[in-house]
């Protein structure tokens, strides 16, 4: 059950990052609506993806199965994180204050790194499948 | 022990390419959906949307995309259900309407030639165009040169194997969803709002049927071979539902997003439009990555089909297939440069020829075997020691007639739909008449061994 605990904690951290993105979306909405929409989409996908993991591992006892499900969800967080990193600093999504795009970029980068580590840990600790 | 008892096969060639997928290897609905989405997430879909953006208004693009996708949903949904019932790949299922030799031949046409060589070459060529767009003044980013090294690069990951392809697909799917959305946003911003975008007239308008044929042709190869994925599903309906959702919702969304971008910027080259629109280098890199992963799959599936009659290690087949595809891509690059005409011709050609095979397969499984009073769940249930026909000539004749008449002789309607319906109609009518007249539709006999050969 050690891995389950780890998964719940790391998922909570990812959840916080997705909420930060949603707050940033609200902050830039009036300045550049397209930037707001992109932050909103990425934040919402990460939020839904992390939220859904809790019930999906809730009653499961088998660690490998928990690992498999963790891998599934972290793949999505990882790939949408890379998309965010690639887009947030693009000219089309520029806003007056560059502090916001850089904050969003950093949040996405940390999510990306954490989800990568989560996949690695699931495969290493629980022998989960990387191909879900 | 029990598993072996229930499952009498031996998977000699790997990936259950010649035998049914056993129960313990079957996957969830979500897994099936991911894999289908991974195939859809490619630059060619955005390119297809860009082509539609030159030919139709935004409203028309959405209608064309919905109609084309609905046709694909029907074709792919029906073939996916066949895979769900039989748990076998398309090329094994095709033993029903075409016989053993026919399944090898037509399987090679669909997956080997159309996907493994045709689509691989077209996408390697598109890769060359993207590189040329990014770095127009550098010799190694020339369309032909970049197609060569891009093709070789894509080939190497296909040779590594299925797991590598899957990982890259997982990364590409959300990328593409977002990229299509960004394309639409840039389009709306450039046109001064959604109302402005909706008013833009296309540069080269074409008839409605041509657009639908292009949409169908773009993904028809995938639509006919849906059983390759759905055979892994736990429930029969998982495959069809996953296919229908991704094609009706996500394909329409991606085509419309790309078309909006082209309409607003006037650039058919989606990569260039994204770059000019300010999506940044990251968006272009995403496009390249998605294209790369999908092309891996093309090569991989093609090699699987060639493997049914070429008894050598799959990686050598992948290598040979990849070299041919890369050479073709380079030829496109040097001969056609960045012209979209090659791409449009290829889509139209696929839209004309492939639906006939799907039509015959669907007619045999759902209609002919129903007429022969074979229970649904007992159709295409192959077993070791079972006798199958070497050739089912009705399938062969139906495909040839449907392709010629529906694809080239008939001048009205949607070519892809004409061909598919004719393929099914010819098959069922000829088989029915032969049955009534006592003429055998099957020639020769072959006994399956435990490896599925």
UniProtKB/TrEMBL annotation, chain A:
It comes from Aerophobetes bacterium. The chain crosses the membrane at residues 12-30, 36-54, 75-93, 99-120. This is DUF2178 domain-containing protein. The keyword Membrane applies. Keywords: Membrane, Transmembrane, Transmembrane helix.
TrEMBL record, chain B:
Pfam families: Transp_cyt_pur. GO terms for cellular component: plasma membrane. One of its GO terms (molecular function) is cytosine transmembrane transporter activity. Keywords: Membrane, Transmembrane, Transmembrane helix. It is found in: Membrane. This is Cytosine permease. It comes from the Bacteria. It is a multi-pass membrane protein. It comes from Aerophobetes bacterium. The chain crosses the membrane at residues 28-49, 61-85, 105-126, 138-160, 167-188, 208-229, 241-264, 270-289, 316-334, 346-367, 388-409, 415-434. Belongs to the purine-cytosine permease (2.A.39) family. The keyword Transmembrane helix applies.
């Amino acid at each position: 059950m050690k891995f389950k605990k780890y998964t719940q904690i790391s998922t909570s951290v990812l959840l916080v990052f997705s909420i930060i993105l949603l707050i940033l979306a609200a902050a830039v909405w009036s300045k550049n609506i397209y930037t707001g929409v992109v932050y909103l989409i990425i934040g919402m996908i990460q939020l839904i993806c992390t939220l859904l993991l809790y019930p999906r591992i809730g009653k499961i006892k088998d660690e490998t199965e928990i690992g498999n499900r963790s891998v599934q969800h972290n793949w999505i967080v990882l790939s949408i994180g890379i998309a965010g990193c690639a887009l947030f600093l693009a000219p089309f999504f520029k806003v007056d204050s560059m502090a916001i795009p850089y904050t969003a970029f950093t949040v996405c980068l940390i999510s990306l790194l954490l989800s990568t580590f989560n996949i690695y840990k699931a495969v290493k600790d629980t022998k989960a499948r990387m191909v879900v | 022990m029990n598993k072996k008892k229930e499952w009498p096969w031996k998977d000699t060639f790997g990936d259950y390419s010649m035998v049914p997928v056993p129960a313990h290897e079957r996957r969830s609905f979500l897994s099936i959906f991911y894999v289908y989405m991974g195939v859809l997430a490619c630059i060619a879909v955005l390119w297809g949307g860009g082509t539609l953006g030159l030919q139709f208004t935004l409203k028309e693009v959405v209608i064309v995309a919905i109609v084309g996708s609905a046709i694909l949903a029907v074709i792919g949904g029906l073939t996916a259900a066949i895979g769900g019932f039989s748990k076998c790949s398309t090329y094994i299922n095709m033993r029903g309407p075409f016989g053993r030799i026919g399944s090898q031949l037509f399987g090679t046409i669909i997956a080997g030639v159309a996907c493994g060589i045709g689509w691989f070459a077209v996408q390697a060529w598109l890769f060359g165009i993207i590189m040329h767009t990014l770095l127009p003044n550098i010799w190694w980013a020339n369309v032909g040169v970049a197609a060569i090294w891009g093709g070789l690069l894509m080939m190497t990951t296909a040779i590594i194997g299925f797991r590598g392809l899957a990982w890259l697909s997982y990364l590409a799917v959300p990328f593409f969803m977002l990229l299509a959305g960004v394309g639409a946003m840039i389009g709306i911003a450039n046109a001064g709002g959604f109302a402005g975008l909706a008013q833009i007239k296309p540069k080269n308008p074409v008839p409605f049927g041509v657009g639908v044929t292009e949409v169908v042709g773009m993904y028809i190869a995938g639509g006919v071979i849906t059983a390759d994925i759905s055979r892994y599903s736990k429930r029969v309906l998982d495959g069809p539902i996953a296919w229908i959702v991704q094609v009706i919702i996500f394909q329409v969304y991606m085509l419309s997003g790309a078309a909006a971008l082209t309409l607003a910027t006037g650039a058919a080259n989606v990569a260039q439009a994204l770059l000019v629109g300010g999506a940044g280098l990251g968006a272009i890199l995403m496009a390249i990555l998605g294209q790369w992963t999908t092309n891996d799959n093309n090569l991989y599936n093609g090699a699987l089909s060639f493997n049914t009659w070429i008894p050598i290690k799959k990686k050598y087949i992948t290598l040979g297939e990849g070299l041919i595809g890369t050479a073709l891509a380079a030829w496109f690059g040097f001969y056609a440069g960045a012209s979209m005409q090659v791409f449009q011709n290829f889509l139209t050609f696929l839209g004309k020829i492939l639906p006939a095979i799907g039509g015959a397969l669907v007619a045999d499984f759902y209609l002919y075997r129903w007429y022969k009073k074979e229970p649904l769940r007992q159709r295409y249930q192959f077993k070791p020691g079972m006798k199958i026909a070497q050739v089912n000539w009705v399938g062969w004749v139906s495909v040839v007639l449907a392709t010629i008449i529906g694809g080239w002789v008939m001048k009205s309607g949607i070519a892809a739909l004409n061909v598919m319906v004719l393929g099914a109609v010819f098959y069922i009518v000829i088989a029915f008449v032969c049955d009534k007249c006592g003429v055998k539709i099957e020639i020769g006999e072959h006994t399956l061994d435990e490896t599925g050969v």
